[in-house]
Design goal:
Number of strands: 8
Radius of gyration: 21 Å
Number of helices: 7
CATH topology of the largest domain: Alpha-Beta Plaits
CATH architecture of the largest domain: 2-Layer Sandwich
Largest sheet: 4 strands, parallel
Distance between the termini: 39 Å
Shape: flat
CATH class of the largest domain: Alpha Beta
Strand content: 15-25%
Structural class: alpha/beta
Helix content: 25-40%
Order of helices and strands: EEEEHHHEHHEHEHE
């Protein structure tokens, strides 16, 4: 154990939005039981890339006894996530002037025979968010038929959470489907497997105001007899803010509503 700077999370302030997760390419943070947690001192470099992305001001840097940061162990996790995460991590080290860690990371890549990725500003956003990583899936094999016309299962309008009125008549006695807005594009059987017989709300917890989401959902639940809620979100970390908003809305409404969740992979599989 050595005394060094490391992140500390105020659980009272943390709302589990997950915005800190993609901004920690080292993998030191995870959402566990609805809160951001530091899962290992070994992975936290103490540079605080996650701090500025916390809307609740729940993450601070403190000096305390902690296990020594291990760049090689971090790289074991980093390389599993692909080129864009490697780029984000290397950029993170360079931006903070951590030349020793940077060189250790390069040495690790060379030892493992892993090509050192070139910086590509077109493909990598400054945050290094895995949900924004560019992926080319054009070689993916599909088994879809052709010339098959299916009926839409959509039974109301509008569908965007930012637009739906809480007192819309279709909400009363509804089985509610809340979907991240990327899901219907990734999951081919969205209408048949999820939407049939449900009232739809879609939204993006990364691009919209998650606090507004929680307040809007609370109003919808309070104003109507919602029979059940089904959540479908993508596997990327930033998408899980939607889960927290729904759970908080149910809690704030004072009602007990069954919540079922499905998670969709980027290549369109239901987990």
């Amino acid at each position: 154990m050595v005394k060094r700077e490391i992140v500390v999370i105020d659980e009272e302030k943390c709302n589990g939005c997950g915005l800190c997760i993609p901004n920690c390419p080292e993998g030191a943070l995870q959402i566990i039981d609805g809160k951001a947690r530091l899962v290992s001192d070994l992975f936290c470099d103490g540079l605080g890339a996650c701090v500025g992305h916390c809307p609740q001001d729940a993450i601070k840097i403190e000096e305390r006894e902690a296990e020594t940061y291990d760049e090689r162990k971090v790289m074991e996790n980093i390389v599993k996530c692909g080129d864009n995460t490697i780029k984000a991590h290397l950029k993170h080290l360079k931006d903070h002037g951590e030349d020793d860690y940077y060189n250790t990371a390069l040495d690790y890549l060379k030892e493992k025979g892993i090509k050192i990725p070139k910086e590509d500003s077109k493909n990598l956003l400054p945050c290094g968010c895995p949900g924004s990583s560019v992926m080319d899936l054009r070689d993916k094999k599909t088994t879809s038929g052709t010339n098959i016309e299916l009926d839409s299962e959509l039974r109301q309008w509008p569908v965007q959470l930012m637009l739906v009125p809480p007192n819309a008549p279709y909400f009363d006695n509804a089985n509610l489907l809340i979907s991240a807005d990327c899901v219907p594009f990734a999951y081919a059987n969205f209408h048949q497997d999820f939407l049939r017989g449900k009232v739809l709300i879609v939204g993006c917890p990364k691009l919209d105001d998650i606090e507004f989401y929680k307040e809007k959902l609370t109003a919808i639940i309070k104003s109507n007899n919602i029979k059940s809620i089904t959540l479908v979100n993508m596997v990327v970390p930033c998408c899980f803010g939607l889960q927290h908003a729904i759970e908080e809305a149910i809690k704030d409404s004072g009602k007990t509503i069954p919540l079922k969740q499905s998670i969709i992979s980027i290549d369109g599989r239901k987990n």
